[in-house]
Amino acid sequence: MAVKFFDRDETNECDGDAHRIILEAAHRLANRYLDTVAARHVGGTATRAQLVEALGGALPSGASDPVAVLEQLAAHADPGLVASAGPRYFGFVTGGAVPVSVGADWLAAAWDQNGAFFVMSPAVSVIEDIVSGWLLDMLDLPRSAGVGFVTGAHMANFTCLAAARHEVLRRAGWNVEALGLQRAPRVRVIAGDEVHVSAVGALRYLGFGSDEIEIVPADGQGRMRADALETTLATDEGPTIVCAQAGNVSSGASDPLEAIVASAHARGAWVHVDGAFGLWAAAVPELRPQVRGIAKADSWATDAHKWLNVPYDSGLAIVADAAPHRASMSLKASYLQRGDGEERVGTDWVPESSRRARVLPLYALVRALGHDGIAGIVRRSCALARRMADHLKKEPGVGILNDVVLNQVLVHFESDDITRAVIARVQAEGTCWAGGATWQNTQVMRISVSNWSTTEDDIDRSAGAILRCYRQSRPKAEG
Ligand SMILES: Cc1ncc(COP(=O)(O)O)c(C=O)c1O
Fold first, then answer.
1. Is 250 in the pocket of ligand 1 (CB under 6 A)?
2. Are 281 and 378 contacting, i.e. CB atoms less than 8 angstroms apart?
3. Residues 414, 415, 419, 421: is their CA dihedral positive or negative?
4. Angle, CA 206 vertex, CA 205 and CA 209 arms, to 5°
């Protein structure tokens, strides 16, 4: 049916039925996708050229039927979609989206609220406060911490490290927001050898060059060595930021946070923890020992779009002392109307001003699943990762290179070349999807189990497919 988006006569008013017809079409197309996501080839199947051909063309000069636009978008993008919302996508560290959080995300788009200021959306401002409290309870972090709702861990690292920069320089008598960095006292930045690249990127935006970072050696699981940190800290003094990690992006191992925090705090340093996915171990009683001491750190970056399984994009910047958090982010202008001080100003806690209501999916998720349900997703992913490792390591020639302590499995197949060949074959075969990386100079397949909908059967099928691909990738015996 043709739908008029606008009355194109003089008035240009919205046609009363347009939103209903268009959103029902989107609803139908989304359900069609989700109904089949578990069955489809997991990787994308189209080439770039095919996608450009199907989706591109010259700039449209006139109007098109909006429902037809959505239908064509869904049809033409389809072969370029990756079933990362499905149960057998094990690439990077990628969560799916629990249906209630998708529903809330649709409301965020339909309501089209700006989460910057209370007056722009009292509901979003209050919900951000409520969700902040729930998450701090769930993670057992200081209840008075500042919480910012950002796009992901990369921006969360940036936000937390901006607060760190503010505070270590304030203690040295320098107001970095007013005076800048060029004449400021030197700030030492210390990180483990396995620091995530996004923390390095965030430091770069804050004026700290990657070569300036003092690197502390890591152990065989990628954990910063606490004894080596102690040695590094002792070589100099002055304002210092230590970047630690909960959940190495490859192995899942967490740094010895208790010892790191003790050494760093003894010297007045700020401890930032990048816990993009590993922070959620803090929400599960039997996993919490892996991040023992975490609550004593000064700031934490994490993602909700990974292990919390809300739709992209969603990350959290948490800073124990709200004052430096707000001081490093907050901006004022006469037209930006503030309330009486009780009313949360969302933009005070994040690098952006205007912002979608990305807190809504989190609100719906926590309301619908509760702490137990969320802990269940984390716990189940870990059990499924161990199940995957158990299947794979039974095969002669296959090695698991990490201790599977969380949801990450690093697999080596006989040689680096064969491992690369297995990864390519698995991606082309389509039962599941896993990527590669170099782990301590060895090529590995990375398997990350992060999706709420993955079952034991998905793991068994995927392990079977991976092992078939391995057998097909081995050189044929001579003669
Ligand atoms: C430890 C760690 N930090 C930061 C990031 C970056 O997260 P995002 O891409 O959500 O910004 C990741 C991504 O996997 C990660 O594992």
1. no
2. yes
3. negative
4. 80
CB 215 within 8 A of CB 189: no
**pLDDT 10s digits, 74-114:** 999 999 999 999 999 999 999 999 999 999 999 999 999 99
Distance CA 424, CA 37 (A): 21
**Contacts of 175 by beta carbon, 8 Å cutoff, 6+ apart:** 169
**Cβ(456)–Cβ(384) under 8 Å?**
yes
Q: How much is the pTM?
A: 0.97
Distance CA 169, CA 175 (A): 7
Answer whether 140's CB lies under 8 Å from 185's CB: no
Contact 263, 293 (CB under 8 A): no
Give, as one character, the DSSP assignment of residue 252: -
The finding on whether 154 has its CB within 6 A of some atom of ligand 1 is yes
Ligand 1 pocket mutation pick from 154, 221, 291 by most atoms within 8 angstroms of CB: 154
Whether the upstream peptide bond of residue 140 has omega within 30° of 0, thus cis, is no
What kind and span of H or E run contains 379? helix 359-393
